[in-house]
Amino acid sequence: MHRLIVLAIAIGAAVCPVAPALARAVEPGDAAAVALAAPAVVSISVWQQVAADQPGGPPRRIKAYGSGFIVDPSGIIVTNKHVINGAFDVKATLSDGTLVSARLIAASALLDIAVLKVDVDHKLPSLEWGNSDDLQAGDPVLTVGNGLGWGTSVSAGIVSGLNRNLMDSPFDSYIQTDATINHGNSGGPLVNRDGKVVGIDTALFNPVGEGFIGIGFAIPASTAQYVAKQLVDPNHSAPGWLGFKLQDMTWGLAAALGVPYHAGAIVSSVDPSGPAAMASLQLGDVLKQLNGQPLTDSRAFMRAIAETPIGQPVHLTIFRGDKQQEVTATVAAWPNIMTGGMMTGQAAAAMMAMAPDPGMEIGPITAEARKQYGLSPTLTGVLITQVRPQSEASYLGVTVGDVITLVDRTPVAAPDDVHKAIKEAHDQDRAYLAALIQTKGGPQWISLSISARKS
Predict the structure, then answer these.
(1) Which residues form the catalytic set?
(2) Does domain 4-232 have CATH number 2.60.40.10?
(3) pTM of the predicted model, to two decimals?
């Protein structure tokens, strides 16, 4: 199986060993679409808990990034669920540069979609939903988002494929595109030439690294809009469920089972306590239609069932052997589902109190290090010995061999000097800590995020 890299919100600065794919050239109509879309795109930053580096060690508090887009002038933002999953503080940077706190309205139980809300004293620019059902391979599209943390960036491409199954959920129907999707684009919009949202940028595929090679995926707007509207409703119900598992029907299975071939789905398991079992559906039944509508694959059936109101009957046209039958089952709520979302309460307070981890290891400058990294004999400071992928240090462009020389204008000579400065800034609840780093290209100031409440 191909290795799918789902876009984490943390931004890595790793260089991919494969040359990047080239999308289509930007065309005159793209600028008009960007002018409509970009004002409603937001950059999202979160403080998030991640696992310890070593088994048994404490979790780490890191700063990570993603994208989103405003769908209502009151401040309703749609993004990916994985952007805010496990976060205990979320902020959105609006198109005018304003940084505002965002709160989670709801996260989808089964799809990678979440809805946030920001509160400002004026109406915000918003995006309209487009019709993803009309998309065809070859249609021009644009991605807009905070790719690699460089601020709002735009990439042009085409629809490369439709109804892609990433095995991320039972409902997958991803749009494939060669418009660039990188870390930080998660949750941003895929827009058409009219500047309308036709998808949510969600995942990339790269079998050898973390960079974009021309294969990215977006959740279709038809699915995203439905789910987002459900999430905004405080009384939204769980997805519909019949209690079976399906897989796509093939010519080979039809021949082996003696069933007339029809594009559709075959039942691979039945929950004995679910509506499907009560309707006497069996293993090997082949689903052809739902409420008189032919559906092409298992995920289309699952999407239609999930969108059916709880308690409503659905009529299934099935083949059992070579005989067509009609079966009626009543949709129930999907049981035992986990919604995920932000960390709250005492757990969030505990993570707020924890010192941040910028994602770099430091040590003294040794004679070997001076030789290895070509450091001047007179250079003093603290050597950066490791930079974790998808960390704030990586996002800021810090690399192994760089040297921290000043922290808040104060010279540092040992690792403890840096650790002490970070602790003091954290104890003072400061938003950022400034550090001067000697890089191969010369000295450069960076700001490390400190306070989970202010940065």
Answers:
(1) 82, 112, 186
(2) no
(3) 0.75
